[in-house]
Structures are given as structure tokens and as C-alpha cells.
Design a protein that fits this description.
This protein is mainly alpha-helical. The chain contains 6 helices and 4 strands. The protein has one domain.
Length: 188
């Protein structure tokens, strides 16, 4: 492709040519901002859910009430599972907000939501006993594990984590799915 002033195209497709300028400017994308908004929203929601379970914050019942609920749902050692769920949600949510260890944070949300779906599902996606909310949170966690956190994150500033790799995200999802399956098998 040629341009009227510069001849053959020498700039990558990710740049825009502006008439009257001698250089190309990188094209703007909303990808990083969109990832930040998604991470922050899902992370704050999950952090809140986790701290409700662990500490009774934000109107939550705290560990005693959650452990009793887990016991009714069939989890053995219900207090231990309540702690695991609360920590998975709180730490996974905090990790998403910060963009820190994002594949693992997303996998923690995925695994926790799979267990939540198993508890509340009544055979319908929507309505009372539906799992649409849990599905959205689970898929958001999985999506963030696969895409990585974007530039506006702690991971982006750490040399080992700066370049997100698909295989790392896929491995984190596999771990989240495996651990969710183990917990469901223990639940019976």
C-alpha cells in the first residue's frame, strides 16, 4: 500500500499516518483501559464477597454463619471450606484489582464460582436458583487469566510477569478447574 506523501507503507498496521507529519503515531486502543475496568469491577465484587465470609464486613455473616451455610450445603469441615472460599474470593479479588498474579487471581475466582454454581443451581440459568451471576464472574475470571491484566497493573511492572503468555493463563485455568473439581468431589 502507498500513501500520497510517503510512498510505500513502511509503518506497522498499529500506527496511524497523519498528513503533514513526518512520523507515524501509535494507534490508540481501549484494550488496557477496558481490562483495568473489568479487573477493578470483578475484583472489588469478589474482594467484598470474600471479606463478608471471613470478617463479616459489608453486612456479611462472618465465618460462623458461612460455615453453618457450608455445612447445610454438604461440605465436610465446613469452617475450613468457608475459610478457603473466603480467602480465594478476597485474595483473588485483590489480585485482580491490583493486576498482581492475574492468571492465578482469575483462576481463584473461576474455581470459587464453579463451587458456588454447584450449590445454588436448581436446573435453570435464570431466575430463582439460577446461576447467571456466577457464570459471568467465572467467565470474567477465566478471561482475565487468558488475556492478562494489561499495562495498568502491577504485573506489567514486574520483569517476570510483564509479558503475559497464553500458556500461563491456560495452566492457571487448568489448576482452578482441577481444584474446583477436587472440592466438589470432597463435598460429594
Amino acid at each position: 500500500m502507498t500513501t500520497p506523501r510517503t510512498g510505500p507503507r513502511t509503518t506497522p498496521r498499529t500506527t496511524l499516518w497523519h498528513p503533514g507529519t513526518a512520523r507515524a503515531r501509535p494507534a490508540r486502543s481501549g484494550r488496557d483501559l477496558g481490562l483495568l475496568l473489568l479487573r477493578a469491577t470483578v475484583g472489588v465484587i469478589m474482594f467484598g464477597h470474600g471479606t463478608q465470609k471471613l470478617f463479616g464486613w459489608f453486612g456479611g455473616g462472618g465465618l460462623d454463619e458461612v460455615a453453618a451455610s457450608f455445612n447445610r450445603a454438604g461440605y465436610p469441615a465446613s469452617r475450613a471450606f468457608a475459610v478457603v472460599a473466603g480467602l480465594s474470593e478476597a485474595l483473588g479479588g485483590a489480585g485482580l484489582v491490583l493486576g498482581l498474579l492475574t492468571p492465578l487471581a482469575g483462576a481463584a475466582i473461576l474455581g470459587t464460582m464453579i463451587n458456588a454454581m454447584a450449590v445454588v443451581w436448581s436446573g435453570s440459568l435464570y431466575g430463582s436458583g439460577g446461576i447467571e451471576y456466577e457464570v459471568v464472574l467465572a467467565m470474567a475470571g477465566a478471561s482475565l487469566a487468558l488475556t492478562g491484566p494489561g499495562r495498568h497493573s502491577v504485573d506489567h511492572h514486574l520483569p517476570v510477569l510483564r509479558e503475559h503468555r497464553l500458556d500461563v493463563g491456560a495452566a492457571a485455568i487448568a489448576v482452578g478447574l482441577l481444584l474446583a473439581a477436587v472440592v466438589l468431589l470432597i463435598r460429594g
